[in-house]
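Sequence design from tokenized structure. All designs in this work follow the same two-part layout: the structure record, then the generated sequence. An example of the structure record is given first.
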């Protein structure tokens, strides 16, 4: 994956060193001091990025070497990077910072809770011990790093579900802005192809700049080629609309099954009903987005801003 992004970069937490905002200059100052110290230690160079992301190029090996150094010299930054900073590393030379907004964070949490509640309902209503055992061993994770095949690469899903004892999640949920669909699809490809098909399902949700809300989904597809068995990513839902830009909701449902929570589950849970269905109704998903939008409220101005405005009003000509 190259770092040659061409869309307008996000400026959510950056200002230029010369004090000008809204510039694409890679020399930026980070408001968050911990992030600033981390990027300074990396000697990272920012490139133009899709909305919702900050993309940096690195020297090969710089990420690992910097973390090892910070572990000894600056444990505060080291802990922040490993515990709080949402980021991916691609081919050991491309650092992707994901800047999720309130809407994405709350909606991702709500969708994860919806899946967990349906799993709990299945346990309560089935007498099949294999199904109960499997669901009892499904774990929901947030932004745990997932190491992928190839040059040093890891990704951090917005939400993930895995079966106890498995390294790779069976199901990954990712949020993105509509302007960042290319990056969303690339993440799905990395999870599926670079895990060797161990990630069974990636669900991608796009929130547009207006009210547009879409869903996509991908899974591995195994096939025979001239060179033998091969695997590729297959889209099973392609940017289906959940809510139109005028706010109108579309009826629909995305369905998946217990067998999607991990690979080779039929071997480990031979008696489980793996075709038991999980349903994400579009109206429910839209409701989560609407609730999250209502929580996405700007903070009130600080006292210094209020005083400055009052002073300007007093000095204004009458």
């Amino acid at each position: 994956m190259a770092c040659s992004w061409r869309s307008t970069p996000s400026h959510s937490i950056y200002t230029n060193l010369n004090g000008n905002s809204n510039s694409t200059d890679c020399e930026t100052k980070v408001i968050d001091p911990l992030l600033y110290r981390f990027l300074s230690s990396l000697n990272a160079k920012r490139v133009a990025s899709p909305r919702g992301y900050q993309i940096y190029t690195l020297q090969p090996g710089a990420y690992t070497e910097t973390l090892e150094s910070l572990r000894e010299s600056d444990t505060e930054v080291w802990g922040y990077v490993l515990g709080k900073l949402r980021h991916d590393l691609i081919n050991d030379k491309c650092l992707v910072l994901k800047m999720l907004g309130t809407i994405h964070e709350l909606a991702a949490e709500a969708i994860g809770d919806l899946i967990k509640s349906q799993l709990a309902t299945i346990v309560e209503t089935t007498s099949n011990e294999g199904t109960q055992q499997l669901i009892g061993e499904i774990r929901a994770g947030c932004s745990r790093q997932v190491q992928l095949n190839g040059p040093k690469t890891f990704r951090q899903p917005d939400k993930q579900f895995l079966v106890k004892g498995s390294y790779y999640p069976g199901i990954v949920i990712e949020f993105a802005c509509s302007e960042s669909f290319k990056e969303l699809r690339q993440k799905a490809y990395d999870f599926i192809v670079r895990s060797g098909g161990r990630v069974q399902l990636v669900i991608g949700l796009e929130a547009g700049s207006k009210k547009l809300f879409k869903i996509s989904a991908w899974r591995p597809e195994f096939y025979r080629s001239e060179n033998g068995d091969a695997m590729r990513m297959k889209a099973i839902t392609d940017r289906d609309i959940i809510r139109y830009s005028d706010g109108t909701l579309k009826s629909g449902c995305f369905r998946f099954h217990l067998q999607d929570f991990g690979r080779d589950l039929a071997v480990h849970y031979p008696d489980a009903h793996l075709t038991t269905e999980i349903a994400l109704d579009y109206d429910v998903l839209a409701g989560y987005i609407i609730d999250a939008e209502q929580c996405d409220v700007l903070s009130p101005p600080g006292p210094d801003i209020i005083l400055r405005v009052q002073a300007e009003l007093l000095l204004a000509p009458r």
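The CA atoms of residues 207 and 213 lie 5 Å apart. We note this feature because it recurs in several other targets discussed in the main text.
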